[in-house]
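Dear colleagues,

I hope this message finds you well. In preparation for our joint manuscript, I am sending the KrfA protein (Chromobacterium paludis) sequence together with its predicted structure, so that both groups work from identical material. I would be grateful if you could confirm receipt.
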Amino acid sequence: MIYVVYFMICICYTCEGKRTKGSSMASDIYARIRQVAFELVGEGAWPTVAEVRARLGSGSNTTINNVLKEWRQDFLSRMATSSRRPDWPASLAESFEQVWQKACDEAELQLDAVRQEIEAEAAALRDERAQLLLQQEQAAAELQSLRHELELRAARQLELNGELEQARRQLETAQRERQELQAALARQQQELAQARREAETQQAEAAEKHAQQLREARDESERKEALAYERLEGLRVRLYQQVEDERKDMKQQLHKLETSLQQARQDAAKVEGLWRERVLERERENGGLQARLDILQQQAEEARAQISHMRQSEEAARLEWRQATEVLARLQERQALLPGQWLERACAALLTEEMPREPEAARAWLRARLEA
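The corresponding structure tokens are as follows:
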């Protein structure tokens, strides 16, 4: 039935459109409204106030509604006249016109109800799209925040790397100083050993010299003593005193040499103790630098772990953003396909089944066919 109605509407539009194009176009709003109504019928759509106003781009809804009412009455009367067969009885033709008028009225009511449902569904889809856009903006803001935090962590990582490099340079400097101190200590030890050897050599030479002097003095003493026996007793006593004086001088010189050797040994021990203290102090400083280096390395590892975690969070945010974009695209595609699908379902149902006459039953029947 709907197919026959649509076919008759197209025939009427074709005839009327040819007559309209043959005459000059009116400049007033009424002629423009009627022209747009004919164009919509020619495209297979029933003209409404919203669609006509959208085509015109301006105009009052009241004016468009009044003109459309007149146009519908005129158009339906022409369609009924054009569809009347001359061989039909008058009563049959009148009954057909009444049935036709009622069918058109019911179809318009059902079409309005379907349009309202479609508009409600479209509004719900728009709300859902707005929510998805809001979620997308929130995800983008969170992603920006994560990127900023990642940049801060990267800057902190660079700073930690700089501190680590500085600590490494300080450690290398300390190690070089330690090596220099160790080398200096080795030189001091060598010098101390050399001084000890020289002191021992000098001591040995002094002892040998002293022994030689003692031997010489003894020989001289014996010689003088022999001479003393030959000389007077007084000369013997004087010579004996001279020998004793020379012995005291030798003892004093030997004591001085031993004192010098002891002082040299004490000085060497002091130098060795001083260098040992400096080496221990450097070792303690190196231990502190090593502990600081370990702390900096631990902080660097923690920063690397935090950067890895931030990268994982950024990947998760990107995945959520892509999923939200895909859902939005599917909703937009569904929104674009819904009107055409519902119209096809309605036409198929009207061609294969008979629609109830009661408005509520007709609305429920049409809703069931559209949701099938």
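For the figure legend, we might mention the following. Confidence is low (pLDDT under 50) at residues 1-27. The helical segments are 2-22, 29-42, 49-56, 61-83, 90-230, 233-352, 359-371.

With kind regards,
E.M.
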